[in-house]
Amino acid sequence: MSSSCRMEGRICIVYLDPMIYEEQVQEETQAVLEGLAKDRSIDGIVVSFEKVEKLASGGLGLMVVTYKQLHDRKAKFGICSLHPWHRHLFQMTKLDGFLTMYASEEAALAAMVSAK
């Protein structure tokens, strides 16, 4: 399985592969996210952690890189559906200081649509 995505208007929701901690899956996901981040028809990306059980530093780095690419072009970025231990990891690494975390996909979409 690899990461998948769907469009909701001009917002893309990316569903991370549960094996995101593996290097090959990270590389595939990075390619997908880089392509989406460069696509000017997309106003924002929401990354769903719903099916992710394990998370390594590479996955955290991937979120930072994607955030920066989108931020540089004034597009929106958020992560959602984090398990409590993932949320804690983002807090411990201080990434929650600039990565917006949402409880659910619906909450993320509502916030991004209203932020236009």
Summarize this entry quickly.
This protein is α/β, with parallel strands linked by helices and 116 residues long. It has one domain (4-114): Transcription Regulator spoIIAA (2-Layer Sandwich), CATH 3.30.750. It contains four helices and five strands.
Describe, in plain words, how this protein is organized in 3D.
With 116 residues, the chain is α/β, with parallel strands linked by helices. The chain has a single domain (4-114), classed as 2-Layer Sandwich (Transcription Regulator spoIIAA), CATH 3.30.750. 44% of the residues lie in helices and 20% in strands. The protein contains four helices and five strands; from the N terminus they run ββαβαβαβα. It has a five-stranded mixed beta sheet, with helices on both faces. α1 (23-38) packs parallel to α2 (57-72). It is globular, with a radius of gyration of 13 Å. The model has no long low-confidence stretch (mean pLDDT 93).
Poorly predicted tracts of residues: none
Here the CATH topology equals Transcription Regulator spoIIAA
- First CA to last CA: what distance? 33 Å
Percent helix range: 40-55%
Outline: globular
Structural class: alpha/beta
Taken together, the total number of domains comes to 1
Total strands: 5
Number of helices: 4
Written as H for each helix and E for each strand, in order along the chain, the element string is EEHEHEHEH
Q: Give the second-level CATH assignment, the architecture.
A: 2-Layer Sandwich
Indicate the proportion of strand residues: 15-25%
Q: Which sequence of strands runs across the widest sheet?
A: 1-2-3-4-5
Largest β-sheet summary: 5 strands, mixed
Looking at CATH, the homologous superfamily is STAS domain
Q: What CATH first level would be assigned?
A: Alpha Beta
- The whole-angstrom Rg is 13 Å
Mean pLDDT rating: 93
